[in-house]
Amino acid sequence: MNIQNSNSVDLQTGLLLRQSIPPRLMSEPAPTAKDVDDMLAAAVCAPDHGAIRPWRFHIIRGDSRLKLGKIFADALKIRDPKAGIESIKKEEGRPLRSPLIIAVCAKIDISRLDKIPAIEQIVSVGAACQNILLSAYNKGYGAIILTGINARDTYVKSEFGLEDIDEIVGFIYIGTNSNSINFEKTRPDYTDYMTKW
C-alpha cells in the first residue's frame, strides 16, 4: 500500500478530534462487516515487538450480546452469591448499550517473556485498541473502550479462552452517535507532562 504524506494533516486532525462517546449516546446502525474488517486491519498495524501477534478480537453483535450479558451476570453471581435481581439485570443489560462490541484480549506468549515481557505484549494490544477507536471515528461512528470488574474477572476471562496471565484489555463499544450536539472536549496541556532533557 502506498501511503501519501498528503494525508498526514488529516490524520493529525483526527487524532486531536477523536473522543469517547458514552454507550447511552449510541444507537443503530452498527458498523457493517466491511467496517469491522477495516477496523481490525488497522488494529493489527499496531507496534508488535517480536511479531508475537498477541491480539485477540471477539466480535459481539445481535443476540451474541445476550450471551455476553449472561456471562457478566453469572460472573457477578460467582463473586457475590447474594447479588440482588437488580444488580444481575444490570449486568445482563451492559452489552445491550451499543449495537456492536469488540472484546479485545491479550494472549500472552509465555515462551517469549525473557525478551518480550507481558507488559510489552499488553501495550501492543492497547495500541491495537487505539487503532480501532481511530478507525471507528474515521468512519463516523461513536466508540469507547470500557473495562471495569468484568475485564478482570477470572470467570469472564475463561469464557474468552484466556489463562490467568492473559488479559481482557477492553470492551470497545461502537455504534452510531445519536447525539446531534457536537461538543469540544477540553484536552490537557501536554507540556504539563513533559520534561526536556
Describe the structure.
Strands 1, 2, 3, 4 and 5 form a 5-stranded antiparallel beta sheet that branches. It is globular and about 55 Å long. Helix content is 39%, strand content 16%. It has a domain at 21-61 and 98-178: NADH Oxidase (3-Layer(aba) Sandwich), CATH 3.40.109. It has helices at 8-17, 33-43, 64-79, 85-93, 118-138, 149-152, 154-159; strands spanning 26-27, 55-61, 100-106, 142-146, 167-177. The longest helix has 21 residues, at 118-138.
Short recap of the structure:
The chain is α+β, with helices and mostly antiparallel strands. It is built from seven helices and five strands; from the N terminus they run H-E-H-E-H-H-E-H-E-H-H-E. The chain has a domain at 21-61 and 98-178: 3-Layer(aba) Sandwich (NADH Oxidase), CATH 3.40.109.
Topology record:
Blueprint: H1 8-17, E1 26-27, H2 33-43, E2 55-61, H3 64-79, H4 85-93, E3 100-106, H5 118-138, E4 142-146, H6 149-152, H7 154-159, E5 167-177
Helix pairs in contact: 2-5, 3-4
Average pLDDT reading: 94
Largest sheet: 5 strands, antiparallel
| CATH homology superfamily name of the domain at 21-61 and 98-178 | NADH Oxidase
CATH domain topology of the domain at 21-61 and 98-178: NADH Oxidase
E-strand count: 5
Helical fraction equals 25-40%
Output the keywords.
197 residues, alpha+beta, NADH Oxidase, five-stranded antiparallel beta sheet, 7 helices, disordered N terminus
